[in-house]
Amino acid sequence: EPEVTQTPSHQVTQMGQEVILRCVPISNHLYFYWYRQILGQKVEFLVSFYNNEISEKSEIFDDQFSVERPDGSNFTLKIRSTKLEDSAMYFCASSARGDTQYFGPGTRLTVL
Amino acid sequence: AQSVTQPDIHITVSEGASLELRCNYSYGATPYLFWYVQSPGQGLQLLLKYFSGDTLVQGIKGFEAEFKRSQSSFNLRKPSVHWSDAAEYFCAVALVSGNTPLVFGKGTRLSVIA
Known about the structure:
Chain A has 112 residues and is mostly beta strands. Chain A has strands at 5-7, 10-13, 19-24, 31-37, 43-50, 53-57, 65-68, 75-79, 88-95, 102-103, 107-111.
């Protein structure tokens, strides 16, 4: 069964450094999403992406964040200058028609 | 604002016992409804979903959920819990217009005892 994959599974970085989190969505899906889950809190929406542009973004997704689909398979989330409060589990999701979203295993980001 | 409430933070049940996890939502109209499960160290796996039609939906791993419009609820049930069901369960909703963000509840952690 096709799955969403994410790399790395765990990323440790210093405050102020840039990080890129990578996702490979399910191959025939057209809609892509990033969510995050700070430890002990609920899963929160960051951004959605369709037809090579951002469809919607939350208040969390400020100028420090960007997304890109650099080729036909990858979908990336970049955090330009990480802060301590960016430490969280980041989930990528994809959807064929924009209704049911399938999630990857997540990348745990630790900012020191 | 739209919201999802899972009133139980932690539930412990005995293996073989029945289970019901509660979910209530606050939306202007009936949204799409989902239950996801997160096992330790794993991602979010879709258990089941409700878009329209029959209000009792069947999912994977023997789970079912019932949509009750009058109560704005979408409770998850399983008649006999297995030790492997121990995990975090998340209810989520999305607007019916499509390609809209999921709004999650805070989750219910399920522990299963022998």
